[in-house]
Amino acid sequence: MVAVDIVEVGPRDGLQNERRVLEVDTRIELIRRMVERGAHRIEAASFVRPDRVPQMASAEEVLAGVPRPADVSYIGLVLNGRGAQRAVDAGCDEINVVVPVSEEFSRRNQGMGVAEMLGHAGSAIALARQGGARVSVTLAVAFGCPFSGVVDDRVPEIYDRVADLGLDEIAFADTVGVGVPRQVRELVRLVEADGRVPDLRFHFHNTRNTGYANAMAAWEATTRDRIALDASVGGFGGCPFAPRATGNIATEDLAYLMIGEGLEVDLDLADLLQDAEWLAAELGSPVQALLGRSGGFGTATPTGAGRRARA
Q1: Exactly one of 39, 231, 239, 291 is catalytic; which is it?
Q2: β partners of residue 73
Q3: 145 catalytically annotated
Q4: CATH architecture type of domain 3-294
Q5: Is 209 exposed, middle or buried (0-12, 13-18, 19+ CB in 10 A)?
Q6: What Å distances lie between residue 53 and 45, 282, 305, 306, 311, CA to CA?
Q7: Second label for 118, Cα 20 to 30 Å away, from 51, 154, 170, 197?
Q8: Tell me: the pLDDT tens digits for 248-265?
Q9: pLDDT tens-digit profile of 114-131?
C-alpha cells in the first residue's frame, strides 16, 4: 500500500491570506503544536518581502524559536536566490522554490515572466544545495490560472525545464482549487514516465469541493512507495495574489480519509481538532475543516487520547 506523508503547511499557507497578522510567538506556538501532534514535515515560513506578505514577516525569528526534534524537517518557501539564502541561514532543512506555470500569474504575483522565474529557481536551488538543504520546486497554478484559464498544455513544458535542475521533489499546486482527478492522474503519469525527480507531492485547495477527491486520485494513481500531500490544520489558507483562492484541504480531514483507507497516519486527531479551534480564535476566522463539526467514525474517531499511529 502506498504510504502518504502529510506535509503540514498551516504555519505558511494557512496564515498568508488571513487578515490578522499573528505575532511571532503565536506562529512558533502553532508549529510547536504541530510537532507535538506528530507532523514530520512542516512548512514553517516563506522568505519573501514582508511588504507584499506581512503575515510572513520575521521568518528568521520564527525559525529561531521552533523546536528541533531529529525527525522533523522544516520547509522554507522561497522565490529566488536571496530568499533561499535567508532560508538556509535560518536553519531550514528544505527549500521549496515556487515557479508558476502561467505567464500572467507569474507577472502579477512575482513581477516577472516564467523564464526569468526559472532562472531565479536555478540560483535558489544552487544556494540551497550549497547550504546542505533538500530542494523541491512547486509548480504554482498547475491546474488552472485565475487570469489565463486552462494551463494543461503549459505544465509539461515547465516541468521538463525544472526537472533538469536537480530536484529532490516536484510538487504540483492547485493554487485556486480548480483541479479535478483527471488532471491529477495525468500529472502522476507525466512524472513517473520521466523518472528525473525522486519524490512527488501535491498541494490541493478545496475551493470547488474537489480537493479530497484529488488527494485520493494522487494516492491511487501513483506506483511509488510514497507520496506527499500538503494539508493545513483547520483548512485555513489561500493565495493573496489569486482571487477566490480559499482554504487548503484540512490536515484533520485528510488524516480521517487516509485512516479510513487503512493507512497509519502519525497525527493526533483529537488534539488537531483543539488546535484548529485555537488557531481560529487567534485569527478571528472560523475553522474550514469538517471533522470537528461532525466527528469521526469507526477507526478514525478522535478520542480524549487522540488517534496516533506511525506513518
Answers
A1: 239
A2: 41
A3: no
A4: Alpha-Beta Barrel (3.20)
A5: exposed
A6: 11, 18, 37, 34, 33
A7: 51
A8: 999 999 999 999 999 989
A9: 999 999 999 999 999 999
